[in-house]
Amino acid sequence: MEKHDLNNEQEAYLAQWMEGALSDEELAGYIPEEEIAFYKKLRLGTEVLRSPGEDIFLGIQQKINNKREVQLSRKSNLKWAIAAAASLVLFLTSYFFLGNDTIAITTSFSEQRNIELLDNSEVTLNAKTQLSYDEGEWEHHREVHLDGEAYFKVEKGSTFAVITDQGTVEVLGTQFNVKSTLDFFEVTCYEGKVQVSKDGEARILFPGMTYRRINGHPIENGRSTHKQPSWIHGESTFKSVPLTYVIAELENQYSLKFDTKAIDGNVNFTGSFGHDNEEVALSTVFNAMRIEYSYNDQKVIVLRPYE
Amino acid sequence: MLKELKKICNPTVFEDIFKTYAGDLKQFLFFKTQDLDLAEDILQETFVKLWENCEKVSYTKVKGYLFTVANNKFINWTKHKKVVRNYEKSAVSKNDQESPEFILLGKEFLQKIEQAIQDLPETQREVFLLSRMEKKKYAEIGEQLGISVKAVEKRMHLALKTLRNTIGNV
Q1: In CATH, what number does B107-167 get?
Q2: Alpha carbon A266 to chain centroid distance?
Q3: CA dihedral over B50, B52, B57, B59, signed as positive or negative
Q4: Per-residue CA distances from B135 to A12, A50, B24, B129, B131 (Å)
């Protein structure tokens, strides 16, 4: 190495070339061709040595997402028809204005509602759900409070948080479903990456992952190959969910009241019911569980195990 | 508490597996393909496959699984390339390498680079690693180290010259 290199302010051409500030041709003004060949080889070598980072990992997530979308688009178009029908059931919604800028949106029995938030993020509320947020604070905190069940399509940007009594769900541009009722908490990630946290403990969900907690007990991840929650398409789907919660969902979707004293609500139910035919929905759930149902005079449905 | 049993389907475990093996897999694939983009592509496909089979693959065998899948994907790619090349031959004769600047890189050269980086004087190594391994801009490095951009460039320039001298002709 020549001494004057160290003292000359201008001697940084290799560094400038490495960062792309100098072209190959410009570099050729300083050093001969075979030297350039060496540095190119060195540049490639360090690229190979570099550990794959976040960008590569995000690419993997993207590929996982794309594959699932392809699989889903092969399935019938029927779902779209049902989705269009479901989106018509959007009436009785009421807006409540609480305090200064707090906006609360509530859905009633058998009602779903699409709303657009201030940043164009979309939320679909399932029946018997309340979502509230502070319009004034929105620019600083994208934060919503949820009681019930909702499906979120979040615009990219700063952190977006869904706060429930049972934990906080945080995301950066993604699609996910949160269901939080008194003692049932379930989050499913459909796209991107979601973090679920409660009392300082956090876990990350990838597309297709479900995190569920019933009565405070976390349950290992389930997996889903669906692109959206089934209720968006007018169907409630359950995978090993205690019957109590299935019955609660029937109440929400059909505005019913059940008498469950005679049955065991802890038995798990796997299956689904549609939102368009009460009789079919009742027989689907209760025949499978070997439970009889009959209306009493107060319009309450009494449940009894088969004789 | 949540991961008493290491399950690959657990996203945190999956990400840890990526962090542990992606570097070695990338090099393994690069030496087979001599094409960095292709190597990274196959690398991603390999992890997609692991995710799809995360319930079937046991955590203790994940390394072998990854390398086997990567190798199979590479073999499939060469088969595919052969077909494409035969087709191209029948149409127009084309160069063997489509990339205008093909650089052949061997394992020995890579080992030499690794060693030479280790042997760099501390100030040069620091700048070199931040720039080349963490992909930081000189301005960011300057900020991080509390020195001027000019000083960063100078250290980088020296680092490159030092590497040239230690590695020698290859």
Answers
A1: 1.10.10.10
A2: 27
A3: positive
A4: 18, 9, 19, 8, 5
Which ipTM was obtained for this model? 0.84
Residues A194 and A271 placed together within one structural domain of the fold: no
Q: Is B35 on the interface with A (CB under 8 A)?
A: no
Are A38 and A84 contained in the same domain? no
At A178, the amino acid letter reads V
Q: Report the gap between the CA of B91 and the closest CA in chain A (Å).
A: 33
Asked if A49 and B113 come within 8 Å (Cβ–Cβ), the reply is yes
Tell me the per-residue pLDDT of A105-149, one tens digit each, with 9 for 90 and over. 888 887 888 888 877 788 888 888 888 888 877 777 888 898 888
Confidence of residue B94 (pLDDT cuts 50, 70, 90): very low
d(CA A194, CA A173): 9
A165 with A28, same domain?
Answer: no
Position A261 in a domain: yes
Tally of domains in chain A: 3
Collect all residues of chain B within an 8 Å Cβ-Cβ radius of residue A53: 135
Q: Both A214 and A239 in a single domain?
A: no
Type of residue found at A269 = F
Nearest CB among B43, B101, B170 relative to A56 is that of B43
Nearest CA in chain A to B30: A48
| A149/A226 Cα distance (integer angstroms) | 17
Out of A86-90, A95-99, A203-207, B87-91, least confident range: A86-90
The domain that holds A281 is classified in CATH as 3.55.50.30
The model's pLDDT over A23-80, given as tens digits with 9 standing for 90+, comes to 999 999 999 998 999 999 999 999 999 989 888 988 888 888 777 655 544 443 334 4
Alpha-carbon distance B79 to B35, whole Å?
16
Residues B52-59: contacts with CB under 8 Å, at least 24 apart: B52/A64, B52/A67, B54/B7, B54/B8, B54/B9, B54/B14, B55/A223, B55/B8, B55/B9, B57/B8, B59/B6, B59/B7, B59/B8, B59/B13
A60 found inside a domain: no
CA distance, residue B90 to nearest chain A CA (Å): 33
Query: Is residue A165 domain-shared with residue A135, that is, in the same domain?
Result: yes
Cβ of A48 and B26 within 8 Å? yes
In angstroms, the CA A249 to CA A255 distance is 9
Domain identity same for A228 and A148: yes
What tokens does A151 get?
């499906």
Beta partners for residue A143, in sequence order: A161
Whether A240 and A228 share a structural domain = no
CATH number listed for the domain at residues B11-91: 1.10.1740.10
CA distance A124 to A135: 18
Q: Is residue A63 part of a domain?
A: no
Q: What is the pLDDT of residues B15-39, one digit of tens each?
A: 889 999 999 999 999 999 988 989 9
